[in-house]
């Protein structure tokens, strides 16, 4: 799968979530990302995730139990994954890099993106 396409689909599907789902999803992902930035190894990341659980923080922040927030996040991730899979099957990614480079040989800093939905 094309990483850029998947990033685009993820951002787009997250933006379509209800306010509550979007807030919970972004909160947990942000906390996980912050811990990932601090960690130097996979083991260290696991230790940080255990010690500073994004799910415990989210449960406290959103006034839910850890079990409730965990189930809710699993539902959100399943919803996002299902929607992305459906959209990905409908998308055809065509790489025009070589054609654009030939036509823009003089100005190599130009980028052209075409997305048809």
Describe the protein.
This protein is mainly α and 117 residues long. It has six helices and no strands. It has helices at 3-15, 19-38, 42-51, 54-61, 66-90, 97-103. Helix 2 (19-38) packs antiparallel against helix 4 (54-61) and helix 2 (19-38) crosses helix 5. The model has no long low-confidence stretch (mean pLDDT 88).
Name some characteristics of this structure.
mainly alpha; 6 helices; 71% helix; extended; 117 residues
Secondary structure blueprint with pairings:
Elements: H1 3-15, H2 19-38, H3 42-51, H4 54-61, H5 66-90, H6 97-103
Helix pairs in contact: 1-5, 2-4, 2-5, 4-5
Run of helices and strands: HHHHHH
Provide the domain count.
1
Q: What is the CA-CA span between the terminal residues? A: 18 Å
**What percent of residues are in strands?**
under 5%
Low-confidence stretches: none
Structural class: mainly alpha
Look at the structure and give the mean pLDDT. 88
Number of strands: 0
